[in-house]
Amino acid sequence: MAGQYAIATMFFAGFLWVTGALPLAVTALTIPVLLTGTGVYDSMDAALVGFADHIIFLFLAGFMLANAIQKYDIDRRIALYAIAKLGSSPRRLILAIMSVTAVLSMWVSNTATAAMMTPIAVGVLTQVLDRDDLASSQAPPRDGETSEPLTDGGHGDSTAAFTNLQISMLLGTAYAASVGGVGTIIGTPPNAILVGQLNAILDYEIGFAEWFLVGFPVVVVTLPLVWFLLTYVLYPPEVPDVERARATAREQLAAEGELDPRGKRVAAIFAATAGLWMLGGLGDLFEPYLSSVWMTTVFGGEGMTVFGVEGHQGLLYYVMVGVAAIPALVLADTMEWEELVDIDWGTLLLFGGGISLANALADTGATEWIADTVFGGLVGAPIVLVIGAVVLLVVFLTEMTSNSATTSIIVPILISLGSVFSATLGLTDFSTALFLSVAGTIAASFAFALPVATPPNAIVFGSGYVEQRHMLRAGLVLNAVMTVVLTAVIWFLFTFVWPHLLW
Questions:
Q1: I need a labelling partner for 427 at 20 to 30 A (CA). Which of 77, 118, 476, 485 fits?
Q2: Nearest Cα to 346, choosing from 404, 394, 397?
Q3: In the predicted model, is pLDDT for residue 36 greater than 90?
């Protein structure tokens, strides 16, 4: 009976997430109420455990670090530098924008990156196109309103025709933010949702470096392909000269001047945090050189530590490193608390609700029943077909909802498929669950056709400088191509890479 109530809660939350009847975070808050009210859990304490999951605090730290980077315009400086150095042709200019967006989205979350890079892309366009030729579906500015290039770009003429350069650059910004977010755990909410649910359901921890070695190859393969399809097939840019945009970028970069001491301290703290995140997953490299006591203290383990206690998660545990960066920012006199707390709390609540729902479905055995019912027909099918079915299903669901909502719903089901497909894939139940859930989570970042699918899509569409028909045309083509490409890439990684990293 408890499993039926857990499934009913999932369908209730899924309906609200799909329809948008309530904000995503508000829907997430209904989950522990329903799980406790229907008796799935006998206390609110058990239902609220997901809201205190460690991955939530990792994202909390990531959001706050992003605030510090944006306060001192470090991200904008990086963008201007890339435009000045790389944007020697229309296609290379788009590639520069997309590359910076993808790299930033791995560390500053794809939502924040898209919000920052969209006005920069519009500003670049105002330097390449005449302002009157920059089309916008929004109303033009009122009398007396002006805007600065390379900051907010302003509104173009609502009667102007949309150029291929404009469409490909803005869509490229959105798509690069989504693709780049695959690279790290903090890059996009689906990654964090997966990590939290794997920990809750399988008691398994994917380290920061482990995920980077899984996600970064996907970024390296797919980002150039998205750029190629946008600029050579779908919307080839026709403007021959982009030198004015490069010159403006150089001028504004020079006007920024040298980073002030506080900004340098922020850059140093961010670089140290990112470096320690990666270093924490490379403990095997140091094992020959460190004693067992220091290995346990620094990288974690069951043995004795230098503190005289037995068992330790490790000083380089990535959540500990991320959370420690926040007091470091304050102690370095770079951020006030009021500046740090201006973050996306709704996303953190969404994580908590998703993890609570996953716990309930796993604890009651509901996910196993769903997995047998939905995917039972694929038992015995070739591995490529299984991967393709998971990728296609996740991409389709994401277009209808959002990547965060889709991941919250589908990941517990994919984890439970371990027992269903283990014989088909020739792996243990655990390895199969891990493989399928990682594959589905990666696919959730590759829905490109509709604004609702991902936050970057929504941000770029909301700017008014592309229309839904442009996104739909590009997105349908990219969805079809990326389903095939992701299936091939994931199969390759599954066969030759992941066995050495994940199981």
A1: 485
A2: 404
A3: yes
Distance CA 223, CA 246 (A): 23
What number of other Cβ atoms are within 10 A of residue 157's Cβ?
A: 14
Burial call 397-411: b when 16+ CB within 10 Å, e when fewer: bbbebbbbbbbbbbb
Nearest CA to 343 among 111, 53, 20? 111
Nearest of 183, 184, 210, 185 to residue 195 by alpha carbon: 185
Upper half-sphere CA count for residue 225 (Cβ side, 13 Å): 19
Half-sphere exposure of 318 (CA within 13 A, CB side): 28
From its phi and psi, is residue 142 left (phi > 0), alpha (psi between -120 and 50) or beta? beta
Query: CA 409 to CA 403: how far, in whole Å?
Result: 10
Quickly list H helices, 234-300: 243-256, 261-279, 283-286, 292-299
Whether the pTM exceeds 0.90: the reply is: no
pLDDT tens sequence across 219-274: 999 999 999 999 999 999 876 667 777 787 788 888 888 889 999 999 999 889 88
Integer Rg of the chain from CA: 23
- Burial (CB count within 10 angstroms: exposed 0-12, middle 13-18, buried 19+), residue 473: middle
**Eight-class DSSP state of 259:** P
Sign of CA dihedral 276, 186, 59, 314: negative
Rounded to a whole number, what is the distance in angstroms from the first to the last CA of the chain? Answer: 34
Dig out the tokens for 362 from the structure: 């796993």
Buried b (16+ CB within 10 A) or exposed e, 189-218: bbbbbbbbbbbbbbebbbbbbbbbbbbebb
CB-based burial label for 297 (10 Å; 0-12, 13-18, 19+) = buried
The rounded distance, in Å, linking the Cα atoms of 350 and 24 is 6
Alpha-carbon distance values, 152 to 117, 149, 400 (Å): 10, 6, 30
Digit-coded pLDDT (tens) for 145-195? 333 444 444 444 544 577 888 899 999 999 999 999 999 988 888 898 898
Alpha carbons 181 and 12: distance in angstroms, whole number: 29
The encoded tokens of residue 133 equal 């030729």
The Cα 434–Cα 498 span in angstroms is 10
Q: What is each CA distance from 328 to 260, 325, 448, in whole angstroms? A: 18, 5, 38
Distance CA 371, CA 416 (A): 6
Annotated domain spans of the chain: 2-258+342-501, 261-340
3-state secondary structure of 301: strand
Contact residues for 228 (Cβ-Cβ < 8 A; gap 6+) = none
